[in-house]
Amino acid sequence: MTKLDYLTETPSQTAGPYVHIGLAPGAAGFDIYRQELGWDIAGPNAAGERIRVEGRVMDGTGSPIKDVLLEAWQANAAGVYAHPEGGGDVEEGFRGWGRVITDFATGEWGFDTVKPGATAGRNGSVQAPHITLWIVARGINIGLNTRLYFSDETEANANDPVINTIEWERRRQTLIAQRSKEDGKVVYRFDINIQGQDETVFFDV
After folding, report:
1. Is there a contact between 156 and 130 (Cβ–Cβ < 8 Å)?
2. Which tens digit of pLDDT belongs to each residue from 52-67?
């Protein structure tokens, strides 16, 4: 028997109180970088509809969690990712990735981007326009993965291969961001519930 046979799994640990300083220092009040990493998702040259995405992350009692970091991944308006295997070219400056933290006072988070297009799924399927979100905070041992779909994409959502793996319609609705207009700007509201009766669907990826 080798020494490795005696090793046990390292205990997991939550994100800790300094997650913002390490991952989003500018938002935490530290002027470290010339350009804050993850703030510019789409860039000025991206085609498509400009939108604002915002919401809150709430605990099982419905209270906002105020120390959350969210990362977002998305395709451009043509359904192409900014990746060598993304299926095509994207506009100059389009990152398709961003990072935001919640407001320390209100728990609100938000970012500006362009509305993504439908993307290719497995086995020739088509995925409805969506944004993938990864959520970390104190008290969450493993980052939570979810998806944000758009309320005005009813037909595409109904045919999405991922949404259709969720059996209950009520659970599916936790993935739908609601469209509105505020001061002439398109806004999608997406509140995330970590626990409780209306817990958001999280994916094991």
Report:
1. no
2. 999 999 998 999 998 8
- Tokens 């959502």 -> residue: 157
50 close to 112: Cβ distance less than 8 angstroms:
yes
By three-state DSSP, how is residue 72 classified?
A: strand
Q: Which of 192, 169, 152 is nearest to 56 (CA)?
A: 192
pTM for the model stands at 0.85
Separation between Cα atoms, residue 79 and residue 127, nearest integer Å? 9
pLDDT digits (tens, 9 = 90+) for 72-97: 999 999 999 998 776 678 999 999 99
Residue 196, amino acid: G
Phi-psi region of 124 (alpha: psi -120 to 50; beta: other; left: phi over 0): left
Q: What is the DSSP string of 172-190?
A: HGGGEEEEEEETTEEEEE-
